[in-house]
Design goal:
The chain is an alpha/beta fold. The protein has a single domain, classed as Rossmann fold. It contains eight helices and eight strands. Strands 3-2-1-4-5-6 form a six-stranded parallel β-sheet, sandwiched between helices. Helix 2 crosses helix 3. The longest helix is centred in the N-terminal third of the chain and has 13 residues. The protein is globular. It starts with a helix and ends with a strand. The relative contact order is 0.19.
Length: 203
């Protein structure tokens, strides 16, 4: 395929991490079911495109950053939410009681303790982002019969599959390029969410 290294290099890390979660999700999602993606950044925007390519589910994208929400809509999310204080209620209203599956790409900053509240009875949560601690009452786990699991990186087979989706134009990494001398600017931009997708350092 006619691709450049800068376009596909992030697929070998961020890409397969997001794709693996999306692939696992797709096995559990029937057409018309609802999947919530929390965080449409370097990983979330790849998961969104991957789910579009391999699943018939309805995607609800959640992000506090306006630029990320624009990207999510551009990439075909069915619903885009701003992650405000009523986001759990908004998800339940859209889905009729909760999503069949939720993928948390944030894993901290309080998101880790609203994500499981969005899952419908018998549904699944995949945690990909980390840094916080999930605190679920055992009664909720039992009564709602929700499943919570983690998802880490991916393997060579998943990289090959993702590269095929990329070659077919179905999954594209959105990135901002920085040269090595500008690495401090890149880090500052990352911390302050000044770019969507992924930042790529080029020597």
């Amino acid at each position: 395929a006619n691709v450049t290294p800068i376009e596909v290099a992030p697929l070998a890390d961020a890409g397969i991490t997001a794709y693996r979660a999306a692939k696992r999700a797709a096995k559990l999602l029937r057409p018309g079911s609802y999947c919530v993606l929390l965080g449409i950044g370097g990983l979330g925007h790849i998961a969104l495109q991957s789910l579009h390519a391999i699943s018939g589910c309805r995607i609800i994208a959640v992000d506090r950053e306006p630029a990320a929400r624009v990207l999510a809509k551009d990439l075909g999310a069915d619903f885009v939410l701003d992650g405000g204080p009523n986001v759990v209620e908004e998800v339940k209203a859209i889905t009729g009681g909760g999503a069949h599956l939720v993928i948390d790409f944030v894993g901290e900053l309080g998101v880790e303790n609203i994500c499981w509240k969005m899952v419908r009875k018998g549904g699944q949560l995949f945690v990909v982002g980390y840094g916080g601690a999930v605190n679920v009452p055992t009664a909720h786990l039992v009564i709602e019969e929700i499943n919570i699991g983690g998802s880490l990186v991916g393997n060579f087979t998943e990289l090959v599959e993702l590269m095929e989706l990329n070659a077919d134009g179905k999954v594209k990494m959105h990135y901002t390029e920085y040269n090595l001398a500008s690495i401090n600017t890149a880090l500052d931009d990352f911390k302050n969410r000044r770019f969507t997708g992924r930042g790529v350092i080029v020597p």
